[in-house]
Amino acid sequence: MAQIFPRAYNTLAPAVLVGASVLLGLLGVCVYAVFWSPYMTHVQVPITQPVPFSHQHHVGGLGIDCRYCHTGVETESFAGMPPTHTCMTCHSQLWTEAPVLAQVRQSLTSGAPIGWNRVHNVPDFVYFNHSIHVSKGVGCVSCHGRVDQMPLMWKAQSLYMKWCLDCHRHPETAIRDLKQVFDPGSPNPSREDAGERMQEYQVRPARFLLDCSNCHR
Ligand code: HEC
Ligand code: HEC
Ligand code: HEC
Ligand code: HEC
Ligand code: HEC
Question: Which of 68, 155, 169, 176 could form a disulfide bond with 189, CB atoms 3.0-4.6 angstroms apart?
C-alpha cells in the first residue's frame, strides 16, 4: 500500500487523539462545574426584596412558626405567601413609623399585595407538592436549609432533577419525627430512626418515587 502520510504521523496521530480527548474531558469537567455552580443554580445567593424581611429575626429570634405565615404548607401544593394583614398583627403596634415598613403600610392601605421576588421556582412541567412531603416527615430544613439564619432568603439547594431523585432514591435519609418538621434547626435524622419511621408513616419506597410520571404529569 502506498504510504500517504509520512512515517512520523504514526506516532503523532495517537498523540493528537489522546490530547484531543483530554481536552474534551477537561471541557466536560468545566461545563459540569459551571452547571452546579452558584452562578447557574443561584444557591446561597441572597435575593433582594421590596421589604427587607428577615427570617433570622422573625423565625430565629422571635420563634414564629412557619405555618403562621405559610398557611398552605400542610394541606396544599403551595406553601403560600402571607397576606399583609398577617404582618400587621404585630406591625400595627410595633415599628409603626419605621421607614423599612413603609411599603407594608402602603400595601395595607392600597390593598395591593407586596410584590415579593421568588426565590424558588421549578419549571411548569414539574409537579411539586408541599403537603405530600410535610405530612410524611420531610422537614422544611431538608429542602430550604437553615432559614432561621437567613437575613434575606436564599436557595439552599439547586432544585435540579438530580437533587429530587437523590432523595427519592433514599427517602429513609430524610424522614424525621413529625414534631420536628417545622423546626428549622432540627438535626438530620439518623438512618436507623428514619427507617423505622418509613414504616410508621407509610412512606412509599424508591421504586414508586422514581417514576417519571410522579413529577412529570
Ligand atoms: C412572619 C412571617 C413568616 C414566617 C414566620 C416564616 N416566613 Fe417564610 N417568608 C415570609 C415572607 C414575607 C417571605 C417572602 C420574602 C422572602 O423571600 O424572604 C417568605 C419566603 C419564604 C421562602 C422563599 C419563598 C420563595 O420565593 O421561594 C421560604 C422557602 C420560606 N419563606 C420558608 C420558611 C420556613 C421554612 C419558615 C419556618 C421555619 C418560615 N418561612 C417562616 C414570611 C414568613
Ligand atoms: C409576631 C409579630 C410579628 C409579625 C407577625 C411580623 N413581624 Fe416584623 N418584626 C417584629 C419584631 C418584634 C421586629 C423587631 C425585630 C428585632 O429588632 O429583632 C420586627 C422587625 C421587622 C422589620 C425590620 C427589620 C428587621 O427584621 O429587624 C421588618 C422589615 C419586618 N419586621 C417586616 C415584617 C413583615 C413584612 C411581616 C409580614 C410578612 C412581619 N414583619 C411580621 C414582629 C413581627
Ligand atoms: C421536599 C422539598 C421541600 C420541602 C420539605 C419543603 N419545601 Fe418549600 N419549596 C420546595 C420547592 C421545590 C419549592 C418551589 C415550588 C415551585 O416552584 O412550585 C418550594 C417553595 C416554597 C415556598 C414559595 C411558595 C410556594 O409555595 O411555592 C415557600 C414559602 C416554601 N417553600 C416554604 C416551605 C415551608 C414552610 C416548608 C416546611 C413546612 C417547606 N417549604 C418544605 C421544596 C420543599
Ligand atoms: C429530602 C427528600 C426529598 C426531596 C429533596 C424531594 N422529595 Fe419528593 N418525596 C419525598 C418523600 C419521602 C416522598 C414520599 C411521600 C409518600 O410516600 O407519600 C415524596 C413524594 C413526592 C411526590 C408524590 C409521589 C406520588 O407517588 O404521589 C412528588 C410528586 C414529589 N415527591 C416531587 C418532588 C420533586 C419535584 C422534588 C424536587 C423539586 C422532590 N420531590 C424532592 C422526599 C423528597
Ligand atoms: C422526583 C421528581 C422527578 C422525577 C421522578 C423525574 N423528574 Fe425529570 N425533572 C424534575 C425536575 C425538578 C426538573 C427540572 C429541573 C431540571 O431541569 O433539572 C426535571 C426536568 C426534566 C427534563 C428537562 C431537562 C432539562 O434539562 O430541562 C426532562 C427531559 C426530564 N426531567 C425527564 C424525566 C424522565 C424521563 C424521568 C423518569 C426517568 C424523570 N424526569 C423523573 C423532577 C423529576
Answer: 176
Is 165:212 a contact under the CB 8 Å cutoff?
Answer: no
Q: What's the CA-to-centroid distance between 23 and ligand 5, angstroms? A: 29
What is the rounded CA–CA span in Å between residue 30 and residue 215? 29
How many CB atoms lie under 10 A from the CB of residue 212? 7
Pocket flag, ligand 5, residue 122 (CB < 6 Å)? yes
Ligand 5: residue whose CA is nearest its atom 33: 212
- C-alpha–C-alpha distance, residues 84 and 82, integer Å: 6
Q: What are 38-47's pLDDT values in tens digits?
A: 778 889 899 9
The grid cell for 183 is 423546626
Alpha carbon distance 159, 140 (integer Å): 14
Per-residue pLDDT reduced to its tens digit, 91-103: 999 998 999 999 9
